[in-house]
Amino acid sequence: MAAWSSRKLLRDVFLKRAVFNRIPTVRAFSSSPQNAPKIGYYSKKGRLLTGATLGLVIAGGAYVSTVDEATFCGWLFSATKLVNPFFALMDAEVAHRLAVSAAARCWVPREKRPDPPILGLEVWGRKFSNPVGLAAGFDKNAEAVDGLLGLGFGFVEVGSVTPVPQDGNPKPRMFRLRNEGAVINRCGFNSEGIVAVAKRLGAQHGKRKLDETSSTSTNSNNEVKHGGKAGPGILGVNLGKNKTSEDSAADYVQGVHTLSQFADYLVINVSSPNTPGLRMLQGRKQLKDLVKKVQAARDEMQWGEEGPPPLLVKIAPDLSKEDLEDIAAVALALHLDGLIISNTTISRPDPVKNNPLASETGGLSGKPLFNLSTNILKEMYILTRGRIPLIGCGGISSGEDAYQKVRAGATLVQLYTAFAYGGPALIPQIKAELAACLERDGFKSILDAVGADCR
């Protein structure tokens, strides 16, 4: 393919050169003698430039045609590092908006290299090529699912999605703490609403079904690549409530009725610090009542052989031992499918508390959250006795960080802030480092390492 592209490019350059060199000759015959030297000068200069361009095209095309797809893919991911400094100069939310738009238009590299086999796993009957996912909050409105999954994430979680569109809190509401590798945000569930998100996910779902039909008709073995409902990876949908809603359960039930058909798993977000009263839903009675209503709404819908999507709850890191015990008890009693640990923190651990931006209200994410969220993760793994899949989220910026989450009890892990800082190049790096950590310690698969520090 690369060789063909190079040949086509060379052909186009030759044609352009032929036309370019023919025009000055005609002009020279029709011009006055005093103008002839000037035209000849530009004609000579044009031929030199064309020749130099042609030489570069020939050399570059010949070289690219000899490079294998994996190497070329690696170059593309590495090249994204050159763009990071430009994003750093922008306002945090403007940069975020631009990044989502780029992914939505697939102006990002697409991972063509297979994941290390040691990272493959099956959770909830779904096959993940790797356990590294993108957390909710990046693609709030499901605009860029295909582009983001194409980056090589094992799964992508969109949202939080609210029933009714809402703008969220006033701007500015995102603040970078670059030296600490952290971000403070108080966005407040800014969302286009479930109708807009359902339209996007529905269109994507229909396109994938059409592609599957086409692939089946042309595949002699009648084998179709299996992924999630969104395509090559697994799609999670994170549900939120509107700020002014008086019936929280009704908001989540509405989200289930509208969006669950497009989701490989659903998340009840009761842990954002930026919606008043939301974290109160983590109390034992409140959480139990909420989960029962949402489960009932999901189970009353018609499902095929694959059954309903798993239901998870995302909790905060700012919880007491008693709070964690209550949540674990509810999760086990109601057979919850999983927990995400954790959301952002309202605390300001070292070294953030010395930063002038620490006084900004909102949730803190990034490196300073790592120890707090990992300790909560380990505690919850022990309390649930390893019976419930846990997703470790908070402060992961390397493969070693991801590995520590897995050893603390995480079956899957999620990134957000580190991805915002490091860009696409961080994804293959983390996967490679995670695989190396597993092999270093003698694990045969990622599942063998889950909860290793709790045994």
Automatic annotation (TrEMBL):
It holds the Pfam family DHO_dh. GO terms for biological process: 'de novo' pyrimidine nucleobase biosynthetic process; 'de novo' UMP biosynthetic process; pyrimidine ribonucleotide biosynthetic process. Pathway: Pyrimidine metabolism; UMP biosynthesis via de novo pathway; orotate from (S)-dihydroorotate (quinone route): step 1/1. It is found in: Mitochondrion inner membrane. Its main location: mitochondrion. It is an enzyme of class 1 (oxidoreductase). Residues 205-234 are annotated as: Disordered. PROSITE patterns: DHODEHASE_1, DHODEHASE_2. One of its GO terms (cellular component) is mitochondrial inner membrane. Its EC number is 1.3.5.2. Keywords: Flavoprotein, FMN, Membrane, Mitochondrion, Mitochondrion inner membrane, Oxidoreductase, Transit peptide, Transmembrane, Transmembrane helix. It catalyses: (S)-dihydroorotate + a quinone = orotate + a quinol. One of its GO terms (molecular function) is dihydroorotate dehydrogenase (quinone) activity. Residues 213-222 have a biased composition (Low complexity). Binds 1 FMN per subunit. Its cofactor is FMN. Residues 120-438 form the Dihydroorotate dehydrogenase catalytic domain. Belongs to the dihydroorotate dehydrogenase family. Type 2 subfamily. This is Dihydroorotate dehydrogenase (quinone), mitochondrial. It comes from Medicago truncatula.
